[in-house]
Design a protein that fits this description.
Order of helices and strands: HEEHHHHEEEHHH
Oligomer: single chain
Largest sheet: 5 strands, antiparallel
Helix content: 40-55%
Number of helices: 8
Length: 195
């Protein structure tokens, strides 16, 4: 990928609240994504639009996060419920980014996994790596929304260990909304600097 393309991808990510969406036809194992999701996973956008197996996207997940990501998806498919997970991806521009993925698995009339849908949010700025998230407790964030994001991420990790789906879903919804507001806040700051 050229330097111009790298800057273009980063600029597109910076301007977006939700990076992109995906649809997975489970029985056929065909995952369809928009161009932004494809580029985040280092997949050719035209091929992603035409549909690829889930494994093509799992290859773009950081090797340390890949097995856990695959397990969470498999459990969601088996149970027919939603999931939210943070993991790293290797994007087409060579960067490693953190994403927050939200997926919902739907069952057919016979109770078999039928279709998955979801979206991704780039949370790289909020969580460069595990050490940065832990260090955040020692050095409070400058803005209340950033503090809320840090606390919510910690709560999500703790609640994730419980068998409490309602609490997990509520925490996930709060985390997604905080992520959207932080993204909007960053966009507003950039616009103000350009004015």
């Amino acid at each position: 990928m050229s330097k111009a393309s790298q800057f273009g991808l980063q600029d597109a990510i910076d301007r977006s609240d939700v990076i992109g969406h995906w649809t997975w036809e489970i029985a056929e194992d065909r995952l369809y994504t928009d161009a932004m999701v494809a580029l985040l996973f280092g997949v050719d956008p035209a091929r992603a639009e035409a549909g690829l197996p889930l494994d093509a996207f799992l290859e773009g997940v950081h090797r340390e996060d890949r097995e856990k990501t695959a397990e969470i998806i498999a459990r969601s498919v088996e149970a027919g419920h939603s999931y939210v997970q943070e993991y790293r991806v290797h994007s087409a521009d060579g960067a490693t980014r953190w994403v927050l993925a939200r997926g919902l698995i739907k069952l057919d009339a016979a109770g078999r996994p039928w279709r998955g849908t979801g979206f991704l949010i780039d949370i790289t700025r909020n969580r460069a790596d595990g050490d940065a998230a832990d260090a955040a407790w020692l050095a409070p964030a400058a803005h209340p929304l950033e503090q809320a994001a840090e606390h919510c991420l910690a709560a999500r990790r703790a609640i994730g260990e419980l068998a409490e789906p309602l609490l997990r879903n509520m925490t996930d919804m709060l985390l997604l909304e905080i992520g959207r507001r932080l993204s909007r806040q960053d966009s507003d700051r950039r616009r103000a600097r350009l004015s």
